[in-house]
Amino acid sequence: MFRGSMVAIVTPMRVDGALDFEALAQLVEFHLANGTDGIIAVGTTGESATVDFAEHIRLVQWVVEHVKGRIPVIAGTGANSTSEALHLTQRAMEVGADACLLVTPYYNKPTQEGLYRHYKLIADSVAIPQILYNVPGRTACDLKPETVERLADTPNIIGIKEASTLERIQELVQRCGGRMDVYSGDDGIAAEAILSGAKGVISVTANVAPRLMHELCVAALAGDRAQAEAINERLSGLHQALFLESNPIPVKWAVGQLGLIPPGIRLPLTPLSESFQPMVRAAMQQAGVL
Fold first, then answer.
1. Among 144, 163, 224, 227, who pairs with 135 as Cys (CB 3.0-4.6 Å)?
2. Which UniProt keywords are given for this protein, alphabetically ordered (predicted)?
3. What would the pLDDT profile of 77-91 be if each residue is shown by its tens digit?
């Protein structure tokens, strides 16, 4: 259903942590002008953990209204409480999101049966396309391929963002590729993942280099390995530098260097350490975006 480079967009904030909707509108136009294929609003990169419910839905609605149907808008609506995730998913549908992205419940460490019931309940309750999101390195929760396969026949579960290993992505493509789409959640392996059958990437790097990430996906989806690998090599430093500190600390600093957003970030996250700033800047220069 969705293809290509989909940006896990950062949430612009002023120095005091207040949401900056003016900067968000500018950011949306930046992505529309640079080929981004879809926007994930208030995902985990968008600091979903530190916005309240009202802010969360207002941000999704703002993005939907400013995109005006030009590309898909996917709302991040995951939570470690099933009732909260259900509420956010319902509200995202009501304000016009095209789909929802639901991260696995973090900290709780549910069983595979608990994960199955969590996702099945939300999918059965809210008639909007839904994408599972597995990122065990951040959540301490791993949605296993056999559980994904159980969910693959649920009509409105249309994909999974897998942010673990290339081997896991390839296994999911083999098991479920005919019934649901698989997306890379790791920019560094996105090219190879797409060449292996994934349909795109939900990207942090696209916040900083949207045109290049779009072109990488176009090449990989067309089976042009040489072109996809050449673009990925140019971006390789950026893929790494954007995780020198916890996401989204480095990427918000980098987008700020492009003059698109103010330097605000909400506690407990803090601005990028000065010692890392030259490394991120060098990676941006290597990619040709600064």
1. 163
2. Amino-acid biosynthesis, Cytoplasm, Diaminopimelate biosynthesis, Lyase, Lysine biosynthesis, Schiff base
3. 999 999 999 999 999
Q: Which residues contact 36 (CB under 8 A, 6 or more apart)?
A: 5, 6, 7, 71, 206, 210, 213, 214
- pTM of the entire predicted model: 0.97
Using DSSP bridges, classify how beta strands 200-203 and 4-8 pair: parallel, antiparallel or unpaired.
parallel
- Cα–Cα separations (whole angstroms), residue 125 to 56, 96, 255: 20, 17, 37
* pLDDT tens column, 29-71: 999 999 999 999 999 999 999 999 999 999 999 999 999 999 9
Q: Which two tokens stand for residue 165?
A: 């290993």
- Judge whether 44 is annotated as a binding position: no
DSSP, res 256? H
In a domain, residue 269? The reply is no
Instruction: Catalogue the active-site residues.
Output: 133, 161
Q: What is the CATH number of the domain that holds 119?
A: 3.20.20.70
Cβ neighbors of 230 (< 8 A, separation 6 or more) are none
Q: Dmax over Cα atoms in the chain, in whole Å?
A: 48
Number of domains in the chain: 1
Q: Is 202 assigned a ligand-binding role in the annotation?
A: yes
